[in-house]
Amino acid sequence: MEGGSSGKHFILVHGLCHGAWCWYKLVPMLRAVGHRVTALDLAASGAHPARMDEVASFEDYSRPLLDAVAGAGEDERLVLVGHSMGGLSVALATERFPRKVAAAVFLTAVMPCTGTRLGFTLEEILGRIKPDFFMDSKRVVLNTDQGPRAAVVLGPELLAAKLYERSSAEELALATMLMRVGRQFVDDPIMQDKTLLTEVNYGSVKKVFVVVKADSCMSEEMQRWMVDLSPGTKFEEIAGADHMAMCSRPKELCNVLLRIAGKYG
């Protein structure tokens, strides 16, 4: 899902079990003021044709984003926006192509820091949530070429209570119908690599964390903890939004992204 002509180029990256479709409100808002927008499906997500059991690694899962950034023109400076678990894919793309990224935006997202493993913050978040957090979500085991791998499908009760509780009934219904199997890739070797994220690449790119103050999925305390782990990271705030701020507060999110692009893009 791509379009626009002049202005900045935003690349929007969805979270666990979601797809490019979750940005449908934000995309036309950014395009209406002259910006180019690419909302993409990560591998085996949204309308992507692969199945999750066919995705061998976190790098393969992130390949659509890596290819999009690699294919950007040499004169382009991208604004990457990662939501929720999409923050990890944004971090990987930023490490690989720092000169192409004007700003990396983490929208109530898993934001890693240099000097530790890519998966460190994700593991900390998963370790701090209560055992019943996932409610009616379905845990599944995928038979992959690498062996059995844990996966999940987010359940409708979880979506209603912790992700879309301030969004419309139509948005919740859409999400319930479009959920796909998701993996967190905590056992992937790239997640355990302490040398992956470097100061010269990932650490050199401007980062902005968008704190969603009413998020029931990721607490404000947890969001600010990740900001504190990465000195120099700026932050913006959105009040009154649920975890899916692009659905519940799209105008406010659009204004935040325009400010960021104007400052760093």
What does this structure look like?
With 265 residues, the protein is an alpha/beta fold. The protein has one domain: Rossmann fold (3-Layer(aba) Sandwich), CATH 3.40.50. 32% of the residues lie in helices and 19% in strands. The protein has ten helices and nine strands. The protein has helices spanning 26-32, 58-61, 63-70, 86-96, 120-128, 156-163, 169-178, 220-229, 245-248, 250-264; strands at residues 2-3, 9-13, 36-40, 78-83, 101-107, 138-144, 147-153, 207-212, 234-238. The strands form two sheets. The protein has a seven-stranded mixed sheet with strand order 1-3-2-4-5-8-9, with helices on both faces. The model is unreliable at 1-5 (pLDDT under 50). GO terms for molecular function: methyl indole-3-acetate esterase activity; methyl jasmonate esterase activity; methyl salicylate esterase activity.
